[in-house]
């Protein structure tokens, strides 16, 4: 689903309505507003999965070690 359709459906706002120009600023603002709708759930999901991955893999599964940091 496109950003335009998600924004219309979830925020009841129209974006990208100008045919001649596309605004990356408008896209970024809409993206942030959509994120705010699910921020708590998303952060909880990430925290739970990060903890599960650490329990399964220890620190060996971390991105930093894979990159040699």
Automatic annotation (TrEMBL):
GO molecular function, one term: exonuclease activity
Superkingdom assignment: Eukaryota
GO cellular component, one term: nucleus
UniProt keywords, alphabetically: Hydrolase, Nuclease
Keyword Hydrolase part of the UniProt annotation: yes
PANTHER family membership: INTERFERON-STIMULATED 20 KDA EXONUCLEASE-LIKE 2, RNA EXONUCLEASE REXO1 / RECO3 FAMILY MEMBER-RELATED
Name used for this protein in its record: Exonuclease domain-containing protein
Protein species of origin: Marmota monax (Woodchuck)
Upper classification of the organism: Eukaryota, Metazoa, Chordata, Craniata, Vertebrata
């Amino acid at each position: 689903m496109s950003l335009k359709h998600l924004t219309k459906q979830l925020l009841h706002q129209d974006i990208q309505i100008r045919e001649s120009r596309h605004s990356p600023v408008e896209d970024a603002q809409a993206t942030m507003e959509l994120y705010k709708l699910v921020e708590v759930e998303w952060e909880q999901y990430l925290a739970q999965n990060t903890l599960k991955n650490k329990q399964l893999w220890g620190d060996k599964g971390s991105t930093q070690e894979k990159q040699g940091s």
